Amino acid sequence: MSDGFLKSLPKAELHLHLEGSVDPPTLSELSRRHPTPLSTANNRYRNIEDSSRIFTEDQARELYRYKDFAGFMLAFKAVTERLRTADDYELVTHRMMQKLHAQNVVHAEVYISAGVVHWRGQEFAPLFEGAERGRQRGERDFGISLYWILDAVRHFGVDEAQRVVDEAIQLKSHNVVGIGIGGDERRAGPEQFREVYEHAAKSGLRLTVHAGETVGPESIWGALRELNPDRIGHGLHAIDDPELVRYLAAKQIPVEICMTSNLMTGCCGTVEEHPVRKLFDAGVCVVLNTDDPDMFRTTLSQEYQLARDVFGFSEGELRELAKNSFRASFLPEGRKRELLGQKGL
Ligand SMILES: [Zn+2]
After folding, report:
1. Which of 21, 69, 78, 140 has the highest Cβ tally under 10 A?
2. Residue 16 C-alpha to ligand 1 middle, in angstroms?
3. CA distance 181 to 202
4. Cβ neighbours around 342 below 10 Å, total
5. Can you list the domains of the chain with their CATH numbers?
6. Radius of gyration in angstroms for the set of CA atoms belonging to the chain, rounded to a whole number
7. Would you name the residues annotated as active-site residues?
């Protein structure tokens, strides 16, 4: 089976952070747009010196080399510090969609970190207008659809997460379909977000949660019990609890697997140790994703390639993974059926 098959396989990407799709040339361009530090009243914004730096493409590439989760979070922060205007958001959204199109991704559900924007002391809605312009242009130019999922940072606390949910409710008519929480699982368990998630669900939003990425299966159990999510982000450590694996398979709760991400952040030691094959074989609805493709130097086709080359996924199984990406999407049922029936799947 050729790499051409993997590229031409129609796919959806469901776990993708807009900020993590900023490639080194674009980061360099953004840093030239914003050579001075962002004025902010927020005293948690410490890294002023670093934020005033102009990156060359090579320096941007260097920034994306790290060995652990903390290093990744710093790089992520350096990117978000340079996303300051609606035009910046329009630029990175359109470029992301161009790259998705090149991977034959026909539908994407993209996290946009409203929590980080608030933390910087900026209003989210005016910046989001730029992202929406980028989306509309991208949909026209590349013929793909894109939904937004507003992402809160769990260790910024419950009030902040509530604020993100309120923004998402306001923006439902602008292709915002859901909410998620990411950030440091060690510092903020799922329990405290129960009411925030209930409120989001009652308001017609779909629910995702990063869980079991940096900590064990109890974080996934907690998320399932307290937050009733439609999908689990990462779910890497589900494999440590056979009962949890059986539960995820029985309920067909999709798990957004991000292999390269897990390796690059050190959450998974070696690729061979990754549980993607075991979860798939246990009947879990596994979906392959890139998480932060440019920051992890991967593409969605490369994730499918890993599944093939390291875990021996057959052509039929790879098609099944691609089908899962449409099944697990938040698209209306009719559109899902159309996409599942398309040529090449
Ligand atoms: Zn993520």
Report:
1. 21
2. 7
3. 17
4. 10
5. 3-340 (3.20.20.140)
6. 19
7. 213
